[in-house]
Protein: PLP-dependent aminotransferase family protein
Amino acid sequence: MLSITPLLTKDSKMPIYMQLYLYIRKEIESGALATNQHLPSIRQLAQHLGVSKNTVEAAYGQLAAEGYVASRERGGYRVERLEEITPLLKPLEETAMPHTNAKPQKPDFDFRYGEIAFDRFPHAHWKACVVEALSMEPEQVLGYGDSLGHYGLREEIARYAYQSRGVVCHPDQILLSAGTQHAVSMLIQLLGLGSSGIAMEEPGYDGVKSVMRNSGCTILPIQVEADGIHVEQLHEAGAEAGVVYVTPSHQFPLGMVMPIQKRQKLLQWAVENERYIIEDDYDSEFRYNSAPIPALKALDTNDRVIYLGTLSKSFLPAARLSYIIMPASLLDGVHRKLELYSQAVSPIIQQAVWLFMKHGHFMRNVRRMRRVYQSRHRALTEAIREHFGERAETIGDRSGMHLLVNLKGCRSEDLIALAEQQGCKVYSPAKHWNNPSDCPPSYVMLGFGGLSEQQLWEGVRRLKEAWF
Structure:
């Protein structure tokens, strides 16, 4: 007897294969389909549900890609064992206090950029690594730690940077930091950029701009073209630009990818002007329509690129762990200055992340998250296409964990207010322009990392009700 009998709505905007995939996934997660239980064959289930074999095959393929089921040779598909997910602690109920405002109501669907798929995070493995770290010798985890960071972890990061981004470096070139903003702040101090002009893409990441402004730097906005930063305009900035900050693998927030020809021009600018390039490679792990491309640092034969990487998207934001790969030519001066600094990342966290990487959990998690975000990216783009049609244009949707939507003829402030009435929270990207009024008024930013495929479909459906 077939145990898979979902109610499939053929006139729904959600594709049939997605409805079937979500139903089976829910059955596995609830335990209704037990570990090692065989799924019906593709032919049997297609006949039972009255759908095509391609539909069933697509649903099974997505389940297999995310690790819910596995295909056995001549044995069909069987349910895989799921890791037990540690439940999040619920906050204590707060006693109502006089003269205080009520907590804002949480939206049903929050399209916030930067959220990750906490429901897919391997809590059990991470907890085991934290416990193992705490069992180490006290001097290894309870002190201040190496000013550069845990050496073994820097070895693992050097290996990962080479395998994933083509960057060749020595662990001594790596400096650990507590997030990208802290990394930029450290660079400004270590390189003496506090009174310098820093060229930066326009638009560009507001979080980094804030650090630069608060450190006394002068930001020199350089316009972006369809393929990234305008190199000729950078040349025109001349000696004012001490360094340039770029996001070549996925420009933030517009999402374009800098091609090899422009990368070479940018590297040539650095050599000719004896300047450095700060490359922020913040979410390069997640590309959906093409193979991974090498980092700008991987093309740097003249030691002119300072590389910023982060584990916030591929691992956990709460770990507060980013890293800088310094040019070898700057190491002596940087190391001398760092002797006066304490390492900002907790030695306990560093030890646990080292164990997590050493035991192979990190790479497995990256592969898992790549599949998860690809599925969520597909769900969001398909839902936008189905519900909005030609009324919306998606921008920067080839990689990363967010995209921009251009709702032609609309104003973002109106769209945000209307979305809120339908229980949805969307965002304006205007703060990433030096002059927010330069941002096209019809742009909204949608992050998708923290929402499931079903939530993305329902969220976009509600946005359609709100906007059209």
Observations:
- The domain at 16-79 is CATH 1.10.10.10 (Arc Repressor Mutant, subunit A).
- The radius of gyration is 24 Å.
- DSSP finds 15 helices and 15 strands in the chain.
